[in-house]
Amino acid sequence: MDNSTTTENRKLASQNINYWKIVLIFLSRWYWVAGTVLISFVMAWLYVRSITPIYITSASLKLDGDQQQQMAALPGSPVNYRPFNQNQIQTEGIIMRSEDVILNALKNLDYKISYYLEGRVRVTELYPKQPFQVDILTQDSVNFSRATYSVKPVDRKTFELSSSDDNNKTSKKYRYGQAINAGNMVFTVKTEIPATGNYSFKFNGIRDLYGRAAGGLNVFEQEKNTNIMGVTHTDSNPVFSANVLNEIIKQYVKNDATLKKRSAKQTIDYLDSQIAFLDAQVNKSGNKLSSFQSSNKLIDPNSDKQLGNSKLSNLQNQIAELQLQELGIQQLETQVKNNKDRIQLNLNLEGTNSTLLTGLIAQLNTLIISRENKLQNFNTDAQPIQDINRQINEVKQAIVTNIRLLHERNQKTINYINGQIAQANQALSSIPAKQNDFAKLQSNFDINQRMFSMLFERKLSAQISSAAVISGATIISLAQPSYFPISPVPKKIYSSYLFMGLFSGLGLILLVRILNPYLYDIETIEGLTATPIIGVILKYPKKVQPGESVLSIERPKSIFAESVRSVRTNLSFMASDQDTKVICITSEVSGEGKSFVSLNLAGTLSIIDKKVILIAADLRKSKLHFAFGSDNRIGLSNYLSKQADLADIIFTDERHNIDYITSGPVPPNPSELLHHKSMGTLIEKLRESYEYIIIDTAPVGLVSDSVPLIRKADINLFIIRSGVSKFRAATIPDRLSKEYGLNNIAIILNSFGDEKLHANIYTTNYAHSNTGTYYYSNYTGYGKSGYYDDEKSWWEFWKKKG
């Protein structure tokens, strides 16, 4: 009962984080970190050497909004199809990336043949340099081979050529200037190929470079809230990037002016058609007036009705103006409903083109341009195209609604003026018939004459405006080749890879610790179990040879022997009331050093003239007899099975002054033999002759053979081997204590090597522990104190022994 109570009152040791231990963990594997950093540095070097550098070139344009406003102020001037507003930068970027602008720009470049220099790591494009001349004699404009042709000079007259389309990579010899028929084309190599370097070339179509030209193009607002547009282009060849960017912005400026002149031309064509019609009307009304004067002999009719005629003339003139506006509105309505291209307002008629309508048309044009741009990447049934078509239809519907409102407003105005004309005609009804007819003819002639003059003036103004049209964008600075790559940047790559290697090394240390299932140090054990640790036996620095197991005697001045003696000292505090102490040594699994600890503990006890006997009680797989050179033909199994007497199985090792009993032949029933009362009788007989009876038992985690011995023993030592025993092993002593009501179990940490990588980051606070602790040292840092006779390290060969 007392034993059980004492066991249950034990508590786990109080532990605190030791930050210096955390530092030592990482310092213990500094070479891992150094290795990962070195590997990362090599990877960065290979990456920098292998990746093709990317260069950026830039240019800038000014969007001339002031010039557009001046043109809009001219009478009859065309309204620009892209009014300047805060979204114009984005709109202009879409236009600049349009297919027409890019393809026209590429036509001005020498794009048909690309030359390459093949290096050991990467292939470099030589544009604009031509190391040798290749002429195209005939070529299919679309269906020709895009293969890469590798060339190698043979002598000053011939060379070898191979194609990437040829799976066999066979080379053929040709003469310089000889026509070569390959890939739906005929070409010739005109000049001699340089002898140094591996050169190749390929043929390009204009659309082959379209993606390269458009993909690297970027448009942005260079300064906030300004009309300065910045344009950049990225490419692996800085000269090509600068050349293609300059051609793109030139074509963009040219295209802008062309579209504006097209709008002015449409206005002039419309005015010409109206002028021709009014010219015929003026001639017709003039002839009628002249005939009426001749037939009625009226030379200069003046009457009191001149004021009424003048009023009637003004009203009819207003009707004509409104009808002209109605024609313009109808033309715009037809264009919106039937045309899928961008909309141009042909006439700037006062009162017709409201600000709302102008904005809607600008929005429609922007959406149409966006759709044209998206159609390069999507088909007509794609969701993005359907979405933008829906937006276009909504804007068109808004424009049609706005036009309908203009129709209604004009119609109301016409109806009102017609009412005024009817009143004026009624006032003139009392005029004599001839004078009245003359006045009507004169009024009709005057109206046609005024309409003709007005349209002619507007045509002249439109022609002046067309002649004065310039692009709405001005090039501020052209692109220049930049030979400083934006990618890869060696400094950034090396620094990022350096940090990656550093964190990889630290992460590797953490990963190894996380995945580690083994026990290594005292603090970890103390954090898992309340069973006291009686001592720490150090790891022997060399491999133990057969016959050298009792190292505590063979190396008595070594630090290892001192660690065993520390365990011997603490044993004196356990079962102190017993004259003879039965010590049972077990562990969880085999290979944790039970026999090794038993031998060395027995050796240290024999040195101080203690009468010791060592029993190999692992009847299944004992190795104890190898340490004494015994053949194990007779032993404990023979005695328990009554095949031998006690005197027959006790042997003495004169070298180490230790009595021992080997396990003997493996019996068919080892567990039953150890449970037999004969084992208890044996222990009682040995108590009469020995002060210490050390029993090396089977691992308790594998078989139950050692259970009866554990219950009979005065002291039970549970062996945990550093780096071999797993975490669950530390909980077994507590389970044994609780299950069998024992308070005589202690732990020995065997083969401790001060492995800092797996060290516990906590330090035990023994002042607040309730585990029944014993004093011992792990001897860390004392190996070179001068008190021990350990062999020197290999790097200390120069030191003399003495």
TrEMBL record:
It is an enzyme of class 2 (transferase). Pfam families: AAA_31. It catalyses: L-tyrosyl-[protein] + ATP = O-phospho-L-tyrosyl-[protein] + ADP + H(+). The chain crosses the membrane at residues 30-48, 460-481, 493-512. Its EC number is 2.7.10.2. Residues 580-700 form the AAA domain. InterPro entries: AAA_dom, Bact_polysacc_biosynth/exp, P-loop_NTPase, Wzc-like_C. Keywords: ATP-binding, Coiled coil, Kinase, Membrane, Nucleotide-binding, Transferase, Transmembrane, Transmembrane helix, Tyrosine-protein kinase. Residues 305-335 form a coiled coil. Belongs to the CpsD/CapB family. This is non-specific protein-tyrosine kinase. It comes from Pedobacter vanadiisoli.
